[in-house]
Protein backbone atom coordinates (compact mmCIF):
# COMPACT_ATOMS: atom_id res chain seq x y z
CA UNK A 1 0.00 0.00 0.00
CA UNK A 2 1.33 3.47 -0.81
CA UNK A 3 2.20 6.04 1.82
CA UNK A 4 -0.44 8.34 0.34
CA UNK A 5 -3.21 5.91 1.15
CA UNK A 6 -1.82 4.22 4.25
CA UNK A 7 -4.91 5.06 6.32
CA UNK A 8 -7.23 3.08 4.02
CA UNK A 9 -7.49 -0.69 3.93
CA UNK A 10 -6.60 -2.53 0.74
CA UNK A 11 -10.25 -3.54 0.24
CA UNK A 12 -11.34 0.09 0.56
CA UNK A 13 -8.86 1.11 -2.13
CA UNK A 14 -10.24 -1.50 -4.52
CA UNK A 15 -13.79 -0.42 -3.68
CA UNK A 16 -12.96 3.23 -4.41
CA UNK A 17 -11.51 2.24 -7.78
CA UNK A 18 -14.82 0.56 -8.64
CA UNK A 19 -17.26 3.25 -7.58
CA UNK A 20 -15.37 6.25 -8.99
CA UNK A 21 -15.27 4.66 -12.44
CA UNK A 22 -18.83 3.37 -12.82
CA UNK A 23 -21.25 2.80 -9.98
CA UNK A 24 -23.59 -0.08 -11.00
CA UNK A 25 -27.06 1.01 -12.07
CA UNK A 26 -28.87 -2.11 -10.89
CA UNK A 27 -31.59 -2.97 -8.36
CA UNK A 28 -29.06 -4.02 -5.67
CA UNK A 29 -25.86 -2.09 -6.51
CA UNK A 30 -24.11 -2.76 -3.20
CA UNK A 31 -24.65 -6.48 -3.71
CA UNK A 32 -23.04 -6.18 -7.16
CA UNK A 33 -20.09 -4.28 -5.70
CA UNK A 34 -19.78 -6.84 -2.92
CA UNK A 35 -19.70 -9.67 -5.45
CA UNK A 36 -16.86 -7.97 -7.31
CA UNK A 37 -14.95 -7.64 -4.04
CA UNK A 38 -15.98 -11.09 -2.74
CA UNK A 39 -17.68 -9.63 0.34
CA UNK A 40 -21.35 -9.57 1.47
CA UNK A 41 -23.67 -6.77 0.39
CA UNK A 42 -23.84 -5.46 3.96
CA UNK A 43 -20.06 -5.09 4.14
CA UNK A 44 -19.83 -3.25 0.83
CA UNK A 45 -22.59 -0.86 1.89
CA UNK A 46 -21.05 -0.41 5.33
CA UNK A 47 -17.61 0.36 3.93
CA UNK A 48 -19.01 3.00 1.58
CA UNK A 49 -20.97 4.52 4.47
CA UNK A 50 -17.78 4.66 6.55
CA UNK A 51 -15.87 6.28 3.67
CA UNK A 52 -18.63 8.89 3.31
CA UNK A 53 -18.55 9.56 7.03
CA UNK A 54 -14.81 10.21 6.74
CA UNK A 55 -15.54 12.41 3.68
CA UNK A 56 -13.31 10.29 1.46
CA UNK A 57 -16.40 9.80 -0.71
CA UNK A 58 -18.21 13.11 -1.22
CA UNK A 59 -21.25 11.93 -3.14
CA UNK A 60 -22.50 9.31 -5.57
CA UNK A 61 -24.61 10.62 -8.45
CA UNK A 62 -24.82 11.16 -12.19
CA UNK A 63 -22.33 13.28 -14.13
CA UNK A 64 -24.14 15.20 -16.84
CA UNK A 65 -22.66 17.05 -19.80
CA UNK A 66 -23.28 20.72 -19.12
CA UNK A 67 -23.25 21.89 -22.73
CA UNK A 68 -25.38 19.03 -24.03
CA UNK A 69 -28.08 20.27 -21.66
CA UNK A 70 -27.81 23.77 -23.12
CA UNK A 71 -26.03 25.31 -20.14
CA UNK A 72 -23.28 27.90 -20.57
CA UNK A 73 -20.19 27.47 -18.43
CA UNK A 74 -16.86 29.12 -17.76
CA UNK A 75 -13.88 29.28 -15.45
CA UNK A 76 -13.59 32.60 -13.61
CA UNK A 77 -10.49 34.15 -12.06
CA UNK A 78 -10.97 36.89 -9.48
CA UNK A 79 -8.68 39.02 -7.38
CA UNK A 80 -10.09 39.93 -3.98
CA UNK A 81 -8.61 41.58 -0.90
CA UNK A 82 -7.24 38.77 1.31
CA UNK A 83 -9.32 39.91 4.25
CA UNK A 84 -12.58 39.52 2.31
CA UNK A 85 -11.67 36.41 0.31
CA UNK A 86 -13.55 33.87 2.42
CA UNK A 87 -16.69 35.99 2.73
CA UNK A 88 -16.71 36.58 -1.04
CA UNK A 89 -16.20 32.89 -1.79
CA UNK A 90 -19.10 31.92 0.45
CA UNK A 91 -21.35 34.45 -1.29
CA UNK A 92 -20.38 33.07 -4.72
CA UNK A 93 -21.03 29.52 -3.49
CA UNK A 94 -24.75 30.32 -3.13
CA UNK A 95 -25.14 30.24 -6.91
CA UNK A 96 -26.30 26.68 -7.78
CA UNK A 97 -24.17 26.67 -10.93
CA UNK A 98 -20.93 27.10 -8.99
CA UNK A 99 -19.42 23.63 -8.68
CA UNK A 100 -15.74 24.29 -7.89
CA UNK A 101 -14.36 27.22 -5.92
CA UNK A 102 -10.75 27.45 -4.71
CA UNK A 103 -8.34 29.94 -3.23
CA UNK A 104 -5.07 29.69 -5.17
CA UNK A 105 -1.66 31.30 -5.04
CA UNK A 106 -0.93 34.08 -7.51
CA UNK A 107 -2.35 37.44 -8.56
CA UNK A 108 -5.83 36.00 -9.09
CA UNK A 109 -6.55 34.41 -5.72
CA UNK A 110 -10.07 32.99 -6.28
CA UNK A 111 -10.90 30.55 -9.07
CA UNK A 112 -14.34 29.08 -9.63
CA UNK A 113 -16.39 27.38 -12.32
CA UNK A 114 -19.96 28.44 -12.99
CA UNK A 115 -22.71 27.13 -15.25
CA UNK A 116 -25.95 28.94 -16.05
CA UNK A 117 -29.09 27.82 -17.94
CA UNK A 118 -29.87 29.10 -21.45
CA UNK A 119 -32.17 31.79 -20.03
CA UNK A 120 -29.40 33.36 -17.91
CA UNK A 121 -26.58 35.52 -19.27
CA UNK A 122 -23.17 34.17 -18.29
CA UNK A 123 -21.07 37.40 -18.50
CA UNK A 124 -23.83 39.32 -16.74
CA UNK A 125 -23.99 36.77 -13.93
CA UNK A 126 -20.21 36.84 -13.41
CA UNK A 127 -20.12 40.64 -13.42
CA UNK A 128 -22.94 40.74 -10.90
CA UNK A 129 -21.03 38.38 -8.60
CA UNK A 130 -17.91 40.52 -9.03
CA UNK A 131 -19.83 43.65 -8.04
CA UNK A 132 -21.51 41.96 -5.09
CA UNK A 133 -18.15 40.78 -3.74
CA UNK A 134 -16.21 43.97 -4.58
CA UNK A 135 -13.68 42.06 -6.67
CA UNK A 136 -10.63 44.09 -7.65
CA UNK A 137 -10.30 42.25 -10.97
CA UNK A 138 -12.18 39.52 -12.81
CA UNK A 139 -11.34 37.46 -15.89
CA UNK A 140 -13.88 35.24 -17.65
CA UNK A 141 -12.08 32.24 -19.13
CA UNK A 142 -14.46 30.08 -21.19
CA UNK A 143 -13.27 26.94 -22.93
CA UNK A 144 -12.08 27.49 -26.49
CA UNK A 145 -10.99 23.88 -27.01
CA UNK A 146 -11.97 21.03 -24.74
CA UNK A 147 -9.22 18.43 -24.90
CA UNK A 148 -9.95 16.26 -21.90
CA UNK A 149 -11.93 15.53 -18.79
CA UNK A 150 -11.23 12.19 -17.14
CA UNK A 151 -10.93 12.26 -13.37
CA UNK A 152 -9.82 8.83 -12.23
CA UNK A 153 -7.37 7.81 -9.54
CA UNK A 154 -5.81 4.41 -9.04
CA UNK A 155 -6.16 4.15 -5.30
CA UNK A 156 -4.04 1.00 -5.15
CA UNK A 157 -0.96 2.50 -6.83
CA UNK A 158 -1.50 6.06 -5.60
CA UNK A 159 -1.26 7.51 -9.10
CA UNK A 160 -3.70 9.42 -11.28
CA UNK A 161 -5.02 7.07 -13.95
CA UNK A 162 -6.92 9.27 -16.38
CA UNK A 163 -6.27 7.05 -19.39
CA UNK A 164 -9.90 6.70 -20.48
CA UNK A 165 -11.25 10.19 -20.88
CA UNK A 166 -13.94 12.32 -22.50
CA UNK A 167 -13.22 14.97 -25.14
CA UNK A 168 -16.40 16.63 -26.46
CA UNK A 169 -14.34 18.54 -29.03
CA UNK A 170 -13.37 15.24 -30.64
CA UNK A 171 -9.67 15.31 -29.79
CA UNK A 172 -9.72 11.70 -28.61
CA UNK A 173 -11.94 9.83 -31.04
CA UNK A 174 -12.72 12.43 -33.69
CA UNK A 175 -16.39 12.65 -32.67
CA UNK A 176 -17.12 16.24 -31.72
CA UNK A 177 -20.16 16.93 -29.55
CA UNK A 178 -19.12 20.47 -28.66
CA UNK A 179 -22.03 22.54 -29.97
CA UNK A 180 -24.81 19.98 -30.10
CA UNK A 181 -27.49 20.65 -27.52
CA UNK A 182 -29.68 17.63 -26.83
CA UNK A 183 -33.34 18.58 -26.20
CA UNK A 184 -34.93 17.03 -23.12
CA UNK A 185 -38.58 16.67 -22.19
CA UNK A 186 -40.14 17.92 -18.97
CA UNK A 187 -40.27 14.34 -17.68
CA UNK A 188 -36.60 13.80 -18.55
CA UNK A 189 -35.80 16.93 -16.57
CA UNK A 190 -37.48 15.25 -13.61
CA UNK A 191 -35.29 12.17 -14.13
CA UNK A 192 -32.17 14.37 -14.27
CA UNK A 193 -33.19 16.05 -11.02
CA UNK A 194 -33.42 12.66 -9.34
CA UNK A 195 -30.19 11.21 -10.74
CA UNK A 196 -28.13 14.28 -9.81
CA UNK A 197 -28.94 13.91 -6.10
CA UNK A 198 -26.60 12.07 -3.75
CA UNK A 199 -27.45 8.36 -3.63
CA UNK A 200 -29.00 7.16 -0.35
CA UNK A 201 -27.06 4.34 1.28
CA UNK A 202 -29.64 1.55 1.43
CA UNK A 203 -29.92 -1.84 -0.30
CA UNK A 204 -32.24 -0.53 -3.05
CA UNK A 205 -31.15 3.13 -3.30
CA UNK A 206 -32.81 3.77 -6.67
CA UNK A 207 -36.25 2.62 -5.60
CA UNK A 208 -37.28 5.95 -4.05
CA UNK A 209 -36.23 7.84 -7.18
CA UNK A 210 -38.30 5.55 -9.39
CA UNK A 211 -41.34 5.78 -7.11
CA UNK A 212 -41.23 9.59 -7.06
CA UNK A 213 -41.14 9.56 -10.86
CA UNK A 214 -43.94 6.98 -11.08
CA UNK A 215 -41.84 4.47 -13.00
CA UNK A 216 -40.08 1.19 -12.24
CA UNK A 217 -36.41 0.88 -11.34
CA UNK A 218 -35.90 -0.79 -14.72
CA UNK A 219 -37.51 2.26 -16.33
CA UNK A 220 -35.17 4.57 -14.44
CA UNK A 221 -32.13 2.59 -15.58
CA UNK A 222 -33.44 2.69 -19.15
CA UNK A 223 -33.56 6.50 -19.00
CA UNK A 224 -29.99 6.56 -17.63
CA UNK A 225 -28.79 4.31 -20.46
CA UNK A 226 -30.57 6.52 -23.00
CA UNK A 227 -28.98 9.64 -21.49
CA UNK A 228 -25.56 8.05 -21.89
CA UNK A 229 -26.28 7.03 -25.47
CA UNK A 230 -27.34 10.61 -26.28
CA UNK A 231 -24.30 12.12 -24.54
CA UNK A 232 -26.40 13.81 -21.86
CA UNK A 233 -24.94 11.74 -19.03
CA UNK A 234 -21.28 10.79 -19.03
CA UNK A 235 -21.48 8.27 -16.21
CA UNK A 236 -22.91 7.52 -12.79
CA UNK A 237 -20.14 7.42 -10.21
CA UNK A 238 -18.67 8.57 -6.93
CA UNK A 239 -16.81 11.83 -6.38
CA UNK A 240 -13.84 11.47 -4.05
CA UNK A 241 -12.34 14.03 -1.72
CA UNK A 242 -8.92 13.95 -3.34
CA UNK A 243 -6.96 15.08 -0.32
CA UNK A 244 -8.64 12.68 2.06
CA UNK A 245 -8.11 9.92 -0.49
CA UNK A 246 -4.37 10.61 -0.46
CA UNK A 247 -4.02 12.94 -3.47
CA UNK A 248 -3.08 15.97 -1.42
CA UNK A 249 -1.73 18.25 -4.14
CA UNK A 250 -4.08 20.01 -6.55
CA UNK A 251 -2.07 21.86 -9.19
CA UNK A 252 -3.55 23.91 -12.01
CA UNK A 253 -0.73 24.15 -14.55
CA UNK A 254 -1.12 27.06 -16.95
CA UNK A 255 0.92 27.15 -20.16
CA UNK A 256 1.79 29.80 -22.73
CA UNK A 257 1.41 27.92 -26.01
CA UNK A 258 1.92 29.46 -29.48
CA UNK A 259 -1.35 29.49 -31.44
CA UNK A 260 0.08 27.35 -34.25
CA UNK A 261 0.82 24.57 -31.73
CA UNK A 262 -2.42 24.83 -29.73
CA UNK A 263 -4.00 21.58 -30.91
CA UNK A 264 -0.77 19.56 -30.98
CA UNK A 265 0.20 20.54 -27.46
CA UNK A 266 -3.33 20.08 -26.14
CA UNK A 267 -3.39 16.50 -27.42
CA UNK A 268 -0.04 15.72 -25.81
CA UNK A 269 -1.16 17.14 -22.47
CA UNK A 270 -4.46 15.25 -22.62
CA UNK A 271 -2.58 12.01 -23.20
CA UNK A 272 -0.76 12.22 -19.89
CA UNK A 273 -2.55 10.01 -17.33
CA UNK A 274 -1.81 12.45 -14.51
CA UNK A 275 -3.77 15.22 -16.29
CA UNK A 276 -7.45 15.03 -15.37
CA UNK A 277 -8.64 18.14 -17.26
CA UNK A 278 -7.15 19.98 -20.23
CA UNK A 279 -8.56 23.09 -21.91
CA UNK A 280 -7.54 25.98 -24.12
CA UNK A 281 -8.83 29.35 -22.86
CA UNK A 282 -8.59 33.00 -23.96
CA UNK A 283 -5.72 35.28 -22.98
CA UNK A 284 -5.57 38.85 -21.67
CA UNK A 285 -2.78 41.44 -21.54
CA UNK A 286 -2.16 40.49 -17.91
CA UNK A 287 -2.79 36.77 -18.47
CA UNK A 288 -0.90 35.20 -21.42
CA UNK A 289 -1.55 31.55 -20.56
CA UNK A 290 -3.59 29.61 -23.10
CA UNK A 291 -3.67 26.00 -21.87
CA UNK A 292 -4.88 24.77 -18.50
CA UNK A 293 -4.12 21.26 -17.28
CA UNK A 294 -5.23 19.99 -13.89
CA UNK A 295 -2.76 17.76 -12.09
CA UNK A 296 -3.61 15.80 -8.94
CA UNK A 297 -0.85 13.96 -7.10
CA UNK A 298 0.12 12.69 -3.67
CA UNK A 299 2.50 15.61 -3.11
CA UNK A 300 3.44 19.03 -4.45
CA UNK A 301 6.81 17.60 -5.47
CA UNK A 302 5.06 14.96 -7.60
CA UNK A 303 2.90 17.66 -9.23
CA UNK A 304 6.04 19.62 -10.09
CA UNK A 305 7.68 16.51 -11.53
CA UNK A 306 4.62 15.83 -13.70
CA UNK A 307 4.63 19.43 -14.95
CA UNK A 308 8.31 19.05 -15.88
CA UNK A 309 7.48 15.84 -17.77
CA UNK A 310 4.80 17.67 -19.74
CA UNK A 311 7.17 20.57 -20.41
CA UNK A 312 9.76 18.17 -21.79
CA UNK A 313 7.20 16.36 -23.97
CA UNK A 314 5.78 19.60 -25.41
CA UNK A 315 8.86 21.88 -25.32
CA UNK A 316 6.67 24.51 -23.62
CA UNK A 317 8.79 26.16 -20.94
CA UNK A 318 6.69 29.23 -20.08
CA UNK A 319 4.33 27.88 -17.45
CA UNK A 320 3.43 28.00 -13.79
CA UNK A 321 1.57 25.69 -11.42
CA UNK A 322 -1.06 27.29 -9.22
CA UNK A 323 -1.97 25.36 -6.07
CA UNK A 324 -5.24 25.54 -4.20
CA UNK A 325 -4.66 26.25 -0.53
CA UNK A 326 -8.32 26.36 0.43
CA UNK A 327 -11.33 24.59 -1.04
CA UNK A 328 -14.53 26.57 -0.69
CA UNK A 329 -16.76 24.30 -2.76
CA UNK A 330 -16.58 21.15 -4.81
CA UNK A 331 -19.73 19.44 -5.96
CA UNK A 332 -21.59 18.55 -9.12
CA UNK A 333 -23.64 21.19 -10.89
CA UNK A 334 -27.34 21.10 -10.03
CA UNK A 335 -29.38 21.36 -13.22
CA UNK A 336 -32.87 22.73 -13.68
CA UNK A 337 -33.13 24.22 -10.19
CA UNK A 338 -34.19 27.65 -9.04
CA UNK A 339 -31.36 29.97 -7.97
Question: How would you sum up this structure in a few lines?
Answer:
The protein has 339 residues and is of the alpha+beta class.
Largest sheet: 9 strands, antiparallel
Gap between N and C termini: 44 Å
Using DSSP, what is the number of strands? 13
Question: Which strand-content bin applies to the residues?
Answer: 15-25%
CA radius of gyration is 20 Å
The overall average pLDDT, rounded, is 88
By helix and strand content, what is the structural category? alpha+beta
Which sequence of strands runs across the widest sheet? 5-2-4-3-13-10-12-11-6
Shape: globular
- The number of helical runs is 10
Detail the poorly predicted runs.
1-6, 161-165
Tell me the series of helices and strands, N- to C-terminal: HHHEEHEEHEEEEHHHEEHEEHE
Helical content stands at 25-40%
Overall description:
With 339 residues, this protein is an alpha+beta fold. 32% of the residues lie in helices and 25% in strands. The chain has ten helices and 13 strands. The chain has helices at residues 10-21, 29-37, 41-53, 85-93, 122-132, 186-195, 207-213, 217-229, 262-270, 300-314; strands at residues 57-64, 72-79, 98-104, 110-116, 137-141, 145-149, 153-154, 159-160, 233-240, 249-255, 275-280, 291-297, 319-330. It has a nine-stranded antiparallel beta sheet. Strands 1-9 form a two-stranded antiparallel sheet. The protein has a two-stranded antiparallel sheet with strand order 7-8. A hairpin with a 4-residue loop joins strand 7 and strand 8. The radius of gyration is 20 Å and the shape is globular. Mean pLDDT is 88; it is low at 1-6 and 161-165.
Amino acid sequence: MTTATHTLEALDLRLLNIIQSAFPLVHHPFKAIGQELCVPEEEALGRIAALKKRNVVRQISAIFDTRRLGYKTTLVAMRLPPESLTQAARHINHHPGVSHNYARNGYFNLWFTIAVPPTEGLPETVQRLAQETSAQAVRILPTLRFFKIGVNFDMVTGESAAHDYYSPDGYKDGQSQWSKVEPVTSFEIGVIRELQEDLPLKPQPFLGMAQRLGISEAGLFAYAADFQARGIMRRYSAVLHHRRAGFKANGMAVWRVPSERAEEVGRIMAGHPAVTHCYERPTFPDWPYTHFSMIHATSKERCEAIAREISERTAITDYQVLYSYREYKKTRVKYFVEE
